[in-house]
Structures are given as C-alpha cells and as structure tokens.
Design goal:
Layout: H1 3-22, H2 29-37, E1 48-52, H3 57-68, E2 72-76, H4 80-93, E3 101-103, H5 113-125, E4 130-133, H6 148-175, E5 181-186, H7 199-218, E6 224-231, E7 234-235, E8 262-263, H8 264-276, E9 281-284, H9 289-298, H10 300-310, H11 312-320
Helix pairs in contact: 3-4, 3-8, 6-7, 9-10
The chain binds NADP nicotinamide-adenine-dinucleotide phosphate.
Length: 328
C-alpha cells in the first residue's frame, strides 16, 4: 500500500467513525468531549450574562440553568410579565439573590434602544462578561411565495438587531480594562445547511455565521470569544411563532410533544456547557439530524444526490416530525 492510500484509508475511517458516533448523540463530538472533560457550567459562577429572548423556550431554560450555577443574569425580551415569571423561577430554582437578576424588557428591532439598554446593564452590575443573542423567530413558507417584507422583517430581527446589539457590546469588550469578553448567538442547524420551507430563516441564520466568523477572524488576538450555538428541533413556542410568507402573519401551529424534538432544558444545558468552554460552534439535535447536517456540510455533492431521491417533504418531516406545511 502506498502512502496516499494509507492516508486515504485513515481519513475515510475517521470520517466514518465521526458520522456513526453522531448517529447516537444529541451533540457534536467536540461538545460531548468538553461536557465530559472540560469546564463545568459552575465555572461561570459570578459572571454577568445577558440573555436575549429569555421570556420563553431556550432562553428561559438557559437563564434557569445559569441561575442554578450562580451566574448573575440580565434577561431581555418584549414581554415583561414573562420575564418576571422567569426571574421568579431563577430565584426559586437557582442560587441567586434578587439583586443578581436584572429584568430588562426590550424589543430587539428597536435598534436605537440598544445602547441605552447596555448602559442599564453597566449601571446595574458595573460589568458584562457574556452576551447571548438568543431572541429569534423561525418560518414556514413556500420559498417562491415569500414576500420581500417578510425577508426584511426576518433579517431585522434575526440578523441586523443581533449585529447591532453585538457591536455595542464588542466595543465595550475591546475597550474595558481587563480586556476581552464573550459573545454568543443562537443560530440553528438551518445556519449550517439549507432546510426546506424556511427560505428567509435559513438565509438569516447563514448570515449570522458570516458575521460572527468574520468577527472572530478579525479579533483573533483580542481575547474575544465568539460562540455559535446550532440547535436542531427543540420543543418550544418557536413553531407557532414562526413567520410565514406574508408580513404580520404567524404560522400558529404548535409543536407537539410527540414530535422528535429535544427538550428546551436539555438544549439549554448543552448550550451552557458550550458557553462555559468557549466553543466556537456547538451542534445540538436528536438523531438523525446531526449526521445529516455533517454530511450536508462536508459532503454536499453526495448529500444533494440523496436529497433528490428522498424529496423536500421528507426532509421537512425529518426536521419537524411533520409531513406537510400549513395548507398543503
Ligand atoms: N426551537 C427550535 O426548534 C429552534 C431550533 C434552532 C434554533 N432555534 C433558535 O433558538 C432561539 C430561541 O428560540 P426558542 O425555540 O426558544 O423560541 P421561543 O420560545 O419562541 O423564544 C423566542 C424568544 O425570542 C423573543 N423575541 C421574539 N421577538 C422578539 C423581539 N422583537 N424582541 C425581543 N425579543 C424577541 C421572545 O420573547 P418576546 O415574545 O417576549 O419578545 C422569546 O423570548 C431562536 O434564535 C431560534 O432561532 C430554535
């Protein structure tokens, strides 16, 4: 056997092992490794962490998980009464005092308020250590029917507001005396590969990877940690809140507990492990989403051929455990 064949076989075995292992896990191997051997979530104790989209779902569950481990919290979203409820849970289930949590209502798309909200965080805690950009909405729509206003609303919420808030925080991280900081964003498996019936959403999540990878590359020597969290289907209000093809409309169909979706608690726990370990990217989903995403990203030609055989309706079913979209 010549040297090229030898290396070819080694690489093939490595990739095969990776794909087979992913078929049994709900997280990528890097995340599984740090979960076992890396820093615990407890290493975030005392840090000031700002979570957007904390009034429900993954953001709420992350707030509670971090409260249990003693991180001080800023929780944001539009619905103040839901944030107060989440604060109550954090106090009840966590190890925090009332003064360790700031409820900071904000509409992410009100760009002008970002600096003012950030100033309130600094007024309260005197510092910020981690920003978790988690607020966002999904979409269900046929690609060709999506009106431009929906693309714009989607990008305003899922991309431009995130970038605007992150810029405010990154300036502070770069200027503060102790130097550096950590920004994270909740992307999606839809930020890694094309998913059907979510054109604007998939575009928006892909855009986040471009922006945040660019930030990481530019500030690679500035002690700035950039984490991109990529969940697959998670059981939250998300599906019902989704954009459709028409502006102002919500999909309105709730995910069912019989769908094969990760719980928000499990997803948020894994997101917090990724945060504690400053992972660049973390993929989180029930099988078989991860091997499909891995194949889609690293073997696109092969994956598109297989996709052509199985069809987009099956791909949607794979994503949601639902075979049709509303109206179909
Ligand atoms: N669930 C999934 O299957 C899944 C999969 C992959 C990625 N994700 C990502 O996970 C993140 C959280 O989603 P989730 O599943 O937890 O859904 P969710 O339960 O619907 O939570 C969405 C959060 O975003 C907030 N939000 C929505 N519009 C906002 C606005 N204009 N300004 C401020 N906050 C706003 C909501 O709060 P208010 O309504 O109170 O403002 C809520 O707290 C999203 O970025 C999503 O893309 C979810």
């Amino acid at each position: 056997m010549d040297i090229f064949s030898f290396f070819g076989i080694v690489i093939f075995c490595y990739l095969l092992t990776y794909i087979v292992l992913l078929s049994f896990l709900d997280r990528d191997l890097g995340l599984a490794w740090v979960e076992k051997f890396g820093k615990s979530i407890g290493s975030l104790k005392g840090q000031v962490i700002w979570i957007t989209g904390a009034s429900s779902g993954i953001g709420e569950a992350m707030a509670v998980t971090l409260a249990k481990h003693g991180a001080r919290l800023v929780i944001s979203a539009r619905r103040e009464w839901e944030l107060e409820r989440v604060k109550g849970r954090c106090l009840e289930e966590g190890q925090l005092n009332v003064d360790d949590i700031l409820v900071l209502p904000m509409d992410m798309t009100d760009f002008k308020a970002h600096q003012e909200c950030f100033d309130q965080v600094i007024d309260k805690f005197g510092r910020l250590d981690i920003l978790v950009n988690n607020a966002g909405r999904s979409q269900r729509a046929n690609w060709e029917e999506i009106e431009s206003a929906v693309d714009q609303d989607m990008f305003n919420l899922n991309v431009f507001s995130v970038i605007s808030l992150t810029r405010v925080v990154v300036k502070y991280f770069l200027e503060r005396e102790e130097g550096g900081g950590h920004v994270a964003v909740t992307s999606s498996i839809a930020g890694l590969i094309g998913v059907p019936f979510s054109g604007s959403y998939t575009g928006a999540k892909h855009a986040l990877h471009g922006y945040f990878d660019s930030l990481r590359a530019e500030k690679i020597r500035n002690r700035l940690t950039v984490s991109i969290l990529c969940p697959g289907p998670v059981l939250t209000n998300f599906l019902s809140e989704s954009f459709t093809s028409r502006p102002g409309e919500k999909y309105g169909v709730a995910a069912s507990s019989s769908d094969r979706r990760l719980t928000a608690d499990r997803c948020s726990y894994l997101c917090c492990v990724a945060l504690a370990n400053g992972l660049r990217e973390a993929w989180i989903a029930l099988p078989p989403i991860l091997p499909v995403a891995y194949m889609g990203r690293y073997f696109p030609n092969f994956t598109w051929i297989i996709g052509g055989y199985i069809g987009s309706k099956y791909l949607l079913k794979l994503r949601d455990s639902r075979s049709t979209i509303k109206g179909n």
